[in-house]
Specification:
Layout: H1 4-10, H2 34-40, H3 45-52, H4 68-78, H5 86-104, H6 111-121, H7 134-137, E1 143-147, H8 154-162, E2 169-172, E3 181-184, E4 188-191, H9 198-213, H10 225-228, H11 233-241, E5 247-252, H12 259-274, E6 280-284, H13 286-293, E7 306-309, H14 316-323, H15 327-330, H16 339-350, H17 363-370, H18 375-389, H19 400-410, H20 415-427, H21 433-438, H22 451-454, H23 457-461
Parallel strand pairs: 1-6, 1-7, 4-5, 5-6
Antiparallel strand pairs: 2-3
Helix pairs in contact: 16-17, 16-18, 18-19
């Protein structure tokens, strides 16, 4: 790897030589830095909860009559609200603990680790990553997955999770001979590439690193070797050298499955996990997960770590099926009683026009039923309700017909998808392969366990592109 990497990321003139004068097992977690100390501190449960949750419109911020611009600003923020649960809290805690553990293993005082860094810096395009030193091997192999249909909270969780980590920072004058500063990237969050190829992901990774480490003096060709190396090893080596603590990839969907290129991306994540000791998190739909599992390859091990399934909230039909002992309803993970009401009430209590009013008792389940339990749709519908209530409609005079009309207006574009979900909810399966493939990323996990749909997996696994138009049956 060229010296340009050092100049761009470490701003140093020398590398950490294997015979550096450090004698103790000093890790990067011990370096004198206010940001690193904060990164390594284990937050209390209440503190982590406050970082995750966000009430976009504070309860003491009232809507001002006649102040159109102020009210508009409040309502723009309305849908940014985020409310967490115990499983999400546990999942985020585990991910944070893994990132901190990874930093503890980067023992700059260990001659074996310094030799590893020295050899990593010397990598050229075509070279393979060096074997991990023993101090990192103990922490290697940590992966996380968030699996949920579209509109069930993955993107909102990714945004909330970012709030739990410091932004990239520099450690000035580290106790390392020849280096004036080093960089630390606690978490890098990337989108699954639009072109569905590894080179798209590497471009985004390079951009994320340079966004913090570059300045007006940085050459346009900085870190170009990351893109020249098709294996991704140079990119992983760069992540090692700039101390990336964790990598989050979101937006992996069934529509982006491609047998060859999906494997390349998964191989890159597995390498980052196993060959660099970097915790990785993949956020995907059930369609993507089942498509990958059907490959029967080792890259499916990305789902063998801790997995969080974000289910939709339970509708009235699902509750009825559960009461009748339906096997379909049994597949749904149990929820805490009243979760639907609590989720909708959080939005009601955050709205400038509704927070001081009594919420109708029938509203929470009505909203959940209309939105088929999709938290993203619930947020959109509650936002539209807030908009309408801020105008001519009084909260005290709400009726189901009025609310349904408001929701219909907001959800016009989702009508075909809602019809498929209605079919799934009422008869327990999807009759049409065309409807199945065109809504594949909106479908819950249990659909992909039904024998009726099993023979349709081949289309996902072989990477046939799913277009927006209807697929012939």
């Amino acid at each position: 790897m060229s010296g340009e990497i050092v100049e761009t990321t470490a701003r140093g003139k020398a590398v950490v030589a294997p015979d550096s004068g450090l004698t103790s097992l000093l890790s990067i977690a011990d370096f004198p830095s206010k940001e690193m100390a904060e990164m390594m501190r284990t937050p209390k449960t209440s503190e982590l909860m406050s970082r995750l949750e966000r009430i976009a419109v504070p309860t003491d911020a009232a809507s001002v009559p006649g102040q159109l611009t102020k009210n508009a600003e409040a309502k723009v923020k309305y849908r940014r609200s985020y409310f967490t649960t115990a499983p999400i809290l546990e999942f985020v805690s585990a991910f944070g603990a893994s990132v901190r553990d990874a930093y503890r293993t980067k023992q700059f005082g260990n001659p074996e680790y310094r030799r590893y860094l020295f050899e990593t810096l010397a990598l050229r395009v075509g070279d393979k990553l060096k074997p991990l030193p023993a101090c990192i091997q103990e922490a290697a192999g940590t992966s996380f997955a968030v699996v949920a249909p579209v509109q069930c909270g993955k993107a909102a969780l990714a945004t909330a999770l970012e709030r739990c980590f410091p932004k990239p920072f520099k450690i000035e004058n580290p106790p390392l001979e020849g280096l004036s500063e080093i960089l630390v990237y606690p978490v890098i969050r990337l989108k699954y590439p639009r072109n569905r190829k590894l080179n798209g992901l590497l471009k985004d990774l390079r951009a994320a690193i340079l966004a913090f480490s570059s300045d007006e003096k940085t050459k346009r060709s900085a870190l170009s070797e990351m893109l020249e190396d098709e294996s991704g090893d140079i990119a992983i080596a760069t992540c090692i050298l700039v101390n990336v603590g964790g990598i989050i990839i979101e937006g992996a969907t069934g529509r982006k499955l491609d047998y060859v290129h999906t494997e390349e991306i998964l191989e890159f994540l597995v390498k980052a996990r196993d060959d660099a000791g970097i915790p990785v998190m993949l956020m995907c739909t059930p369609a993507f997960m089942h498509g990958v599992n059907s490959y029967g390859k080792t890259y499916a091990s990305i789902f063998e770590g801790m997995t969080l399934h974000l289910d939709s909230l339970e509708t009235s039909v699902q509750k009825g099926l559960a009461a009748q002992g339906s096997k379909i309803a049994e597949r749904k993970q149990p929820e805490k009683p009243g979760e639907e009401k609590a989720f909708v009430k959080e939005f009601w209590d955050s709205g400038p026009s509704t927070k001081s009013k009594r919420m109708p008792g029938w509203l929470p389940q009505f909203v959940v039923d209309y939105c088929y339990g999709r938290q993203g749709w619930i947020a959109q519908c509650m936002e539209q309700l807030e908009i309408e209530l801020g105008g001519a409609i009084a909260p005290d005079s709400l009726e189901k017909e009025i609310v349904e009309a408001i929701f219909e207006y907001r959800m016009k574009a989702m009508k075909p998808i809602r019809k498929v979900l209605e079919e799934l909810e009422t008869i327990g399966f999807i009759n049409s392969k065309a409807r199945f493939l065109n809504t594949v990323d909106f479908l819950p996990d249990e659909v992909f366990e039904m024998p009726r749909q099993e023979n349709w997996y081949a289309i996902l696994a072989t990477g046939r592109q799913i277009k927006n138009d209807v697929i012939d049956e």
